[in-house]
Amino acid sequence: MQSRDDNDILNDFENKLLSHNAFNELVNKYKVRLYWHIRKIVINHEDTDDILQNTFIKIWKGLPTFQRESKLYTWIYRIATNETLTFLTNKKKRNSLSINDENADSVLNLKSQSYFEGDEAQKKLFKAIEILPDKQKIVFNMRYFEDMPYNQMSEILDTSESALKASYHFAVKKIEEFLKNN
Questions:
Q1: How far is Cα 165 from Cα 89, in angstroms, rounded to an integer?
Q2: How far is CA 77 from CA 34, 72, 87, 148, in A?
Q3: Domain span holding position 176
């Protein structure tokens, strides 16, 4: 079955009799894409599930006031990204680990994940991505793995395209440097 247009889903959501079904349709349409967007940033499955659940709670609460000034997908992606950044900020505040300990923990976590079947080159790439600051990591993942155009990233992250291009460039340089030295 082909998924319906976001506007049709939104129209159904505005009808009190159809709102629960419309929201479930929305969840089913976007949960996998959002899961992997978040997962590439936080690595851990349980953390990803928690963030995804919080994302859909915020979407549920925010849909009645969604103005349709941006695409629904862009709005949803922005919520997921902001929830991920909030999670990472709170995690860093809670943990008194040094950044190197935290990165090592994330890489260890990656190796223990059952979904990860990558070879050594892929593990090395993920280790390199882990050294990036959170926002560079998000920009790199969106561009490299999801092949997202800068204009769409700009809408989601509320940042200029030129700033995103610079961020991606610096992320690539850091990753290249890491791969060359490790």
A1: 23
A2: 7, 8, 15, 12
A3: 98-182
Same domain, 161 and 79: no
Distances in Å between the alpha carbon of 147 and those of 59, 72, 134, 150? 24, 19, 18, 9
CB neighbour list of residue 174: distance below 8 Å, 6 or more residues apart: 128, 131, 132, 136
CA proximity to 160, closest of 151, 170, 168: 151
pLDDT in tens, 71-109: 999 999 999 999 999 999 898 888 754 444 444 455 555
Q: How many domains does the chain have?
A: 2
Final residue before a domain boundary, out of 94, 112, 132: 94
Q: pTM of whole model > 0.85? A: no
Which pLDDT value is given to residue 110?
Answer: 52
Contacts of 98 (CB under 8 A, 6+ apart): none
Q: How many CB atoms lie within 10 A of CB 13?
A: 21
